Amino acid sequence: PVGKMAFGDLVKTSFGQLRRTMGNIRKFKDLFRFLVSFLIYNDGINAVISIAVIYGAELGFDSTQLILAILLVQFVGIPYSLIFGSLPRTGDARQPKYVAFVLYNLIMLPLVGILARNLLAPDQVGVELPDYAQIGEFVGQGIYAPDEIDQTGAWRTDSVAADTAGTETDLPLIVSNDIGNRAALTFNGQNVEVDYNAGPDMGEIAFLIDGQEVELVDAQSKTVRYGESVVVSADDPGEHTLVIEHRSGSNLAIGEIDVKSPARQSNLGLMLGLLVATQVVGLAFAWLTGNRFFTGIANWLNTKRSITMAIMFYLVIAVWGFILNSAVEFWFLAWMVATVQGGSQALSRSLYASMSPKAMSGEFFGFYSILSKFASFLSPLIFVLSVAIFDSSRPGILSLVVVFLIGLYLLGRVNVPEGRAVAKAEDVRLAGLTK
After folding, report:
1. Residue 394 and which of 14, 89, 215, 338 are 20 to 30 A apart at CA?
2. Strand 182-198 to strand 252-259: parallel, antiparallel, or no bridges (unpaired)?
3. What is the mean pLDDT of each run of 10 residues along the chain (435 residues)?
4. Which of 109, 48, 53 is nearest to 400 (CA)?
5. 37, containing H or E segment
């Protein structure tokens, strides 16, 4: 009972403090406006990272490259956060060069990525390849019912009811009861997905491509499982013969066979080389033109305007993500995210701190941290709804534009000098009360 009372008091006290902090922070009108703006556009920023792998996987990018691209954002983001975070630092002789470099990336990363997609060889940059077509008896990509494939031995047709299998439609099957029975499909492609059933009376299934065994699956299990699948692959795309053989066990049940679309092909070294070359040219551009052409912009920039520039980056990222269709673009887009991710969040904290009374900074920053964790639902919700409506992640990526535009609009209504003046006045008031 004592422990329960202590825990209950802790929860009551915590939520009571949150309520009081919300009341306190609303007295600082511009600080509160900025907080709402930050929660919205930062939600979009977090969503870009969290859904990137899902989106890339849907487009068919290699999983290893997706993971490496996300790691790239984290490592590259460290030096770039220092560059972007230094944009409002007036009086720094390097500031115009930083501005030139950042604006160069805003324009050149999308431009070079899109040009690479259109000008370089398709098998080097991971573009979507043409569908596999039927060539004579070799069928092209698509889903084929099990009774459409050639059968050698005693096979029978069967099906599993949809309510039993837990699917929307019945599952068609061909069933073998004799070891050595074979089923064959001649196809034009490379990767083939085969559905099968597992269960106590099932046995081993051998998969051969052009006479060579490439996969051996044990379909025996303690429980019955419907719609299991395995992907078997030929060494190269082209015309092949897939043979499915009943190798052991009492039964074998084969479902639909899916000849997959062409896998994207890319040269990671080439793409990373293009990225590095683009950045080397950008550094040279910033060094040669920064002080000459970008000093005016550098003097005009402050923290709020730098955050606005970061949101403009993310607007470009969302639109580009909608039309993106190659691995090289995905890498360039990831680098673009790395350019602004850390710096935008650092500048946001800096602006928030400048409009918070120093005497209440601990309370307000605790509130800031809590809300930034719990408010990350708007962008994922919009993304999920877009995917549900359009059955594609592309509209979901584009929908983030709405989030960034709302955040940009609310940020524009923040009067930073007024917010800082109010915070300073509150510090003076509180200092007077403590004397």
Report:
1. 338
2. antiparallel
3. 50 54 68 88 85 82 85 87 88 90 96 96 92 95 94 93 90 95 96 96 95 95 93 95 95 95 92 96 96 93 95 95 93 93 90 84 70 68 78 83 93 93 83 65
4. 48
5. helix 29-59
DSSP string of 45-72, one letter each residue: HHHHHHHHHHHHHHHT--HHHHHHHHHH
The SS3 of residue 93 is coil
* Pair of tokens at residue 122: 């398709």
How many angstroms separate the CA atoms of 243 and 182, rounded?
A: 7
The DSSP call for residue 233 is E
C-alpha span between 382 and 423 (Å, rounded): 35
**Interacting residues of 113 by C-beta distance below 8 A, sequence separation 6+:** 320, 326, 328, 329, 331, 332, 333
Dihedral angle computed from the Cα positions of residues 286, 291, 296 and 301, in that order, rounded to the nearest 10 degrees: 50
Side chain identity, residue 296: G
Residue 114 belongs to what H/E stretch?
Answer: helix 95-119
Residues 6+ away with beta carbon under 8 Å from 432: none
196: how many CB neighbours lie within 10 A of its CB?
A: 22
Give CA–CA dist 377/403, Å, rounded.
Answer: 11
What span, in angstroms and rounded, lies between the C-alpha atoms of 278 and 331?
12
Cα Rg, the chain, nearest whole Å: 29
Question: How far is the first Cα of the chain from the last one, in angstroms, to the nearest whole number?
Answer: 43
Distances (CA, A) of 345 to 117, 135, 237, 349: 31, 55, 46, 6
pTM: 0.82
**CA-angle at 80, arms to 79 and 85, nearest 5°:** 105
Q: At what angle do helices 63-85 and 327-354 cross, to 10 degrees?
A: 40
- Containing 362, the helix (H) or strand (E) segment is helix 361-374
Cβ contact 433:351 at 8 Å: no
Amino acid at 294: F
Token output for 181: 């029975």
CA dist., res. 227 & res. 204, Å (int)? 16
CA–CA gap between residue 305 and residue 309 (Å, rounded): 6
Paired sense of beta strands 171-176 and 252-259, if any? antiparallel
In whole angstroms, how far apart are CA 417 and each of 87, 350, 355, 424? 19, 14, 8, 11
Reading the block at residue 350, the tokens are 């800096």
Q: Give the three-class secondary structure for 267.
A: coil
Angstrom distance (rounded) from CA 150 to CA 157 = 13
